[in-house]
Prior knowledge:
The complex is a heterodimer. By secondary structure, chain A is α/β, with parallel strands linked by helices. Chain A folds into 2 domains: 223 residues, P-loop containing nucleotide triphosphate hydrolases (Rossmann fold), CATH 3.40.50; 67 residues, 2-Layer Sandwich (Alpha-Beta Plaits). Chain A is built from 12 helices and 14 strands. A 6-stranded mixed β-sheet of chain A has the order 6-7-8-3-9-10, sandwiched between helices. In chain A, strands 2-1-4-5 form a 4-stranded antiparallel β-sheet. In chain A, strands 12-13-11-14 form a 4-stranded antiparallel β-sheet, with helices on one face. In chain A, α8 packs across α11. The N terminus of chain B is likely disordered. The two termini of chain B are 30 Å apart. Chain B has one domain. Chains A and B meet through α2 and α3 of A and α1 and α5 of B.
Amino acid sequence: MNNIIETEGLTKEFDGLVAVNHINLNVEEGEIFGFLGPNGAGKTTAIKILCTILNPTSGSAKVCGYDVVQQREKVRECIGIVFQDSAIDRFLTGKENLDFHARMYHMNAETKEERIAEVLDLLELKGKENIKVNDYSGGIQRRFEVARGFMNHPKALFLDEPTLGLDIQTRRSLWDYIRMLNEKEGITIILTTHYIEEADYLCRRVAIIDQGKIVALDTPEKLKEVVGLNLISVQIARGEDDSLANLLQEIKWIKNIELCNGSLELSIDGAEERIPELIDFADNHEFVISSIELHKPSLEDAYLHYTGKTIREEEGSVKKLWKAMMTRGRGRR
Amino acid sequence: MPAIEVTKLIDPLPIYTMWLREMKRFLRVKARLVSSVLMPFLFLAFLALPLSFISGMSTGIDLNFFAPGIVGMTLLFAATMSGASVIWDKEFGFLKEVLVAPVNRFSIILGRSLGGMTTAIIQALIIVGIAVAMGVELSSGSGFLLSIVFMILTCATFTGFGLILATKLGDTEGFMAIMNLIVFPIFFLSGAFFPLQAMPAWLRYIMYIDPLTYGVDGLRGTLVGINAFPLWLDFVVLLVLSIALASLGAYFFSKMEAD
């Protein structure tokens, strides 16, 4: 496997505020890679450096084998970008925007028309291309931006918060488009998100980023495993929870037992295979289980595990931080 | 895909693309199109024409004198706006799309400015047409053709000027107010409404440092045959200014942050 992205000690400081802090990572060709973290964690800054919009303060990064500072034009040629805020000309139609993009990337007339038809088809935008962008809904506009992003056959497509501000259905359908692009066109996709479901659903590997640092990097499954044990909640028919709890303490793979709301919460080592074992055990001791459920840890639990906070908790403090950064930014200009 | 030499300074396809975008935007927004022609027309019909009634015979200042001034005004506003509109591209995010393309920034700003200049000159020509319809007598056909050279130079000068304003002021809040504060004195002091020769020395000296003075004088000389300076002087001053301001504007643009 080739690496599409390689970074070494990538760092970006804004007037003493370290937005990206010594990031080392590799993104493999063909994968969907996600940066997950709260607003202000440094995801967008990291992506901007990789897209050659910002220069790093120190460290280095290679995209498609080219250095993002020394060979920025080469990098630009082989990437596509969908920005967090819309970057589309609202006075032009969707097609004219695609047309503009194609020409700016030196596509000749023939390939251009072919490719425009192709991307319109792929993202199911046919019949909408001759309407002014201003008159599109948010979802369609976003889809045009994604379409534009991979017009030039990029090796890597960067999506900065691709579904921010979209409703649930639109978000789901955009996820499916992103997946399809990855599968059909073999494009490596690097996205940032603060939606845990998005990272979980789309990404082959996720980097959890917090205060500019990567605190964990692995597949969503592995990240969840590290959180540790699965949870089984059991309800007993006749409410003799205590006595069952006492008996269960003998079982080795049950690591912890808690009684809450009339059900037993068991932290277990293992997964589904423990359910029949547990039922047999209860049967042997003449308990009747009325319900049994297995919970696997979510990516949110994993996030919590690594950062010690939930994404929602973080937003309050991040907003303050961001404000501070903005006022400092003003002074800079 | 074949390897592309992307760092070249003059990259025809992107230049054309940027030019085309300006043209499309110009033609698309009908209200802007109408107002861009209507405003100079109003100046011509309700300011220059009434003024020509009072100055008239005795001074020799008639509609022939005023019309080139209005053409100059049209160029000043359209060109400055075109240069300064980079700031709106930044505000609406489109600048990022442009700046991350594998295209040299000089080509980007060149194409953009050429587009802005084309639209400004189209507006100016429409005003010349309206002026002729109102009774302005053009001195000669060759003079008219020569006036287009002065239009181009005036445009290049103020497109560069607008770019410098946009990249240096940088903030959209209050930007329009500041721009008007700078652009209107340039217009007033250009001699569009009064002959430079008739002014006291202190005012004349201020007018000498106004680039539009030479634009208006050149236009007046070529279009209706009234000029204060020799045409070659107007030409040389504008040529130097346009190269200087346009290059400086392009330089600031190349240093502009997309974000």
